[in-house]
Specification:
It is globular and about 65 Å long. About 70% of the residues lie in helices and about 0% in strands. The chain is mainly alpha-helical. It has one domain.
């Protein structure tokens, strides 16, 4: 641990139960991530699209407002599964950039200051340490993905004068499980990159590049070989395909099979977890 700051003091407060100590890691990770004003501003900006979507839902279900604004309850104001897919895509892109900025802040300081041996010498296992970091990121990403989407779904169900909930109930599990798959991929990729790159700015760029650059190679493969299998390298495309299937929107004609999209996304998460666990070790190499 870096001691040049000379600001460390022994802890004298109550001790947390061993079974809940991994939650302490999550709590301090959140505090570290939001210690920057940029992080707070970015999180607040992620709430703007759901507010706009809520306003559209209100207008779409209020005939007086529609008459005052001289709009019709059709076209852009049609609240259906396509509407929720669009909002989900917007929130997921925002979640990507938010993760790229916040993710490295949760683990990079521990690595750059060689704190891992100190953490793992306590009654805290490597998996508990990783679980605490993942919980911190998952909480932030949940607040900008499936939580506002489910609130919008509830708002539409309450304001609609028809049996809208009965006709669209299937979107509830689709939104929930689809968002959690994206959260798992984002969190694991971000932590894996941050565990191997100690510089936060580089880790932020690398997180975005790992998820975006292969999409370009996939496009080249599709163009040269005249195939569609290059889409398996396009993580945003695969995730959109899964959301489209879960929310029962017609799939594109050139789409890859949805089960293969699930396999590719789960494989990405699993590989990131392997790389992360290999990096998180209770040892320190000192080079003189």
């Amino acid at each position: 641990m870096a001691v040049y700051k000379r600001s460390y003091k022994p802890y004298v407060g109550p001790l947390t139960a061993i079974s809940r100590r991994w939650l302490v890691v999550a709590r301090f990770s959140l505090a570290t991530a939001f210690s920057s004003r940029i992080s707070v501003v970015a999180f607040v900006l992620c709430m703007v699209p759901p507010l706009i979507a809520a306003l559209i839902i209100y207008i779409a279900n209020n005939e007086l407002v529609q008459a005052a604004m001289q709009v019709k309850s059709s076209g852009a104001l049609l609240i259906n599964n396509r509407f929720f897919v669009i909002v989900l895509e917007i929130q997921s892109w925002l979640a990507l950039f938010l993760t790229a900025w916040i993710g490295p802040a949760t683990i990079t300081p521990d690595l750059s200051n060689n704190v891992l041996p100190l953490f793992l010498s306590r009654p805290l296992s490597r998996l508990e340490y990783i679980a605490g970091k993942l919980l911190a990121l998952a909480g932030v990403l949940s607040a900008v993905t499936w939580v506002p989407l489910l609130l919008l779904f509830t708002l539409q169900s309450q304001l609609s004068k028809t049996a809208w909930f009965t006709e669209n109930w299937y979107m509830l599990p689709g939104i929930f499980f689809g968002c959690w798959l994206w959260i798992a991929v984002l969190a694991l990729v971000s932590l894996a990159v941050s565990s191997w790159v100690k510089w936060r700015i580089i880790a932020t760029g690398a997180t975005i590049a790992i998820l975006m650059v292969p999409a370009g190679f996939g496009g080249v493969i599709n163009g040269v070989l005249r195939t569609r299998w290059g889409f398996l390298l396009n993580v945003p495309y695969l995730m959109t395909l899964i959301w489209t299937d879960l929310l029962r929107v017609p799939l594109p004609l050139q789409a890859v099979p949805v089960p293969l999209a699930w396999v590719a996304m789960l494989s990405t998460a699993a590989l990131s977890l392997v790389l992360l666990t290999r990096r998180i070790q209770a040892r320190q190499v000192v080079r003189g």
